[in-house]
Design brief:
Layout (H helix, E strand, L loop, with lengths): L14 E10 L3 E6 L4 E8 L1 E6 L2 E6 L2 E5 L5 E5 L5 E9 L12 E3 L2 H18 L19 H19 L20 H13 L6 H8 L3 H12 L3 H19 L4 H7 L5 H12 L3 H9 L1
Antiparallel strand pairs: 1-8, 2-7, 3-6, 3-8, 4-5, 4-7, 6-9
Length: 289
Amino acid sequence: MLEPFYPPGVIQIDCLYSIHYFPFAGGYLFPGETHAFWEMVYIDQGEAEIGAGEKKVRLSQGQAIFHCPNEFHSIFANAQRGTNVFVISFGSPSPAMEAFVGRVCLLDESQRRLIRRMVRQGERAFGPVLDVPIKRGMKQPPNGSQASAQMLVVLLTQLLLELVNQPSVPSAPKPAALTDDLDFAPIWERIVALMRRRRDGLCFEEICREVGFGETMLKKRFKRYTGCTVMAYYQQLRLEESRRLLRQGDMSVSQVAEAMGYSSPQAFSRQFKRIVGVCPVAYLKMVKD
């Protein structure tokens, strides 16, 4: 009879307290808070100054910081073009989590993909309102996927296990060959900057001309780097800005559609529902609720 092997539970996640993906405008200040659970803050775009206890740490794109339970922490998004921040807070009794006290990590591309997958699973589990502060705790909507909620914990656990044995001080990335993903990072940044400038309409051919890539090569490299196509990524950025405008409450759905360059409010609503999962009116209701 074979004797089973029981893998050790190096990192265990007991519960989730929050998950957010915030597109902060330049100059945004979150004055700070403390709570009795762990929190990870990851800079997906731009940069931010993070208060952690009595010190301040400047984080740039691709870096993450961990706040241990009861540590005071704050955020100052000082990038002129805004800062996109992923935040997840959770409970863990694992002694191995001590390795993350005051920890700053530089995530590699595979780990950044894990973050993007966590955002997608979070929206499937809790609805497309990760950009809205939750003050009354987490609660799944009736149509929220329980499988996605469990997948979110699995992805977070995987990320923590990958990071627990890495050095706490990020080293500068080594020069890479053109065929490596690291060397595509500045090209990707130029593409994203162009997309943000041209939020009201942009075609794939213009993007290729801007970065000097052929269509076939750009499609291949961009898909490998981000996990989605160029134009799908552009549509996600446009919808991200649309959600921000809707949350501000100063513009109607029709006005947002016009500002973002859609041919009609109906076309905007169809695209919004296809990507976000609900129509703009339903999204606004979820935000208010």
